[in-house]
Amino acid sequence: MNRRRPTLLAALTLTAAAALTLSACESDDKPASDNDKIAGADTGTESSKSPTESAPAEPDRPKIELPTDVTYEFEWDKTGDPAKDAVLHDAEQRIRAVDLAIAEQNALHEAYRFYSEGEAAAGSQKYIQEFIDHKARTTGVTRYYQEDVNVKDDGTASLVYCEDQSKAFNKFIETGKTDVTDVSPDSYVLYASTLRKNAKGVWVTERLVSERGSAKCQP
């Protein structure tokens, strides 16, 4: 594994047409500026409830504690829309959960399976197993930017975003050696995902496709 972090679901190449299809799903909201910025944090706003109205219970979310050398820059701005911000928050948690599974060398880790199902979960398992097979994990800083999120009335959502892997590398567990690779167009990856809000109120990623070296994500 002498290349930069293998691309999740590398077999499913995201074509430009597919990216445009997802972006075109924007409804009557302001048109996406080729991806918007998100911030993966809390949903930001609280809805006012009457004294007799009880809020739905928050699901028990897995704790995600990563090695100190695994860090992120999420350049995702709060949208002000609770549903969109919830999608972005849970998408961020899925990203972190996959790196946790890699760090703990567990291809069936509960954390990423909490935030993904179906094709996305299967793809994550395969991706994580590749690191396990090479006795490696991730290290460095990974940047996420140029997001475009759309929430639909049927409880599903689409999310397109870019990933900058120019400062993220493979670290071999047994030797502690980091495989530092040169920055190239392939350091930048475009992702498109579909999500669904499950019965627990969690936005789980069901499908995720990628295009490494996408012109849309180049600096």
Which features would summarize this protein structure in a list?
single chain, about 220 residues
Walkthrough of the structure:
With about 220 residues, the chain is of the alpha+beta class. It has four helices and six strands. Strands 1, 2, 3, 4, 5 and 6 form a six-stranded mixed beta sheet that branches. Helix 2 (about 80-105) runs parallel beside helix 4 (about 120-135). The longest helix is centred in the middle third of the chain and has 22 residues, at about 80-105. Residues about 5-55 have low confidence and may be disordered.
Structural class assignment: alpha+beta
Query: Which percent range describes the beta-strand content?
Result: 25-35%
Look at the structure and give the mean pLDDT: 81
Low-pLDDT runs of 5+ residues are 6-56
> What is the CA-atom radius of gyration, in angstroms?
17 Å
End-to-end distance: 25 Å
- Helix content estimate: 10-25%
Task: Give me the strand/helix succession.
Answer: HEHHHEEEEE
Put simply, the count of helices is 4
| E-strand count | 6
Shape: globular
Quick one: biggest sheet?
6 strands, mixed
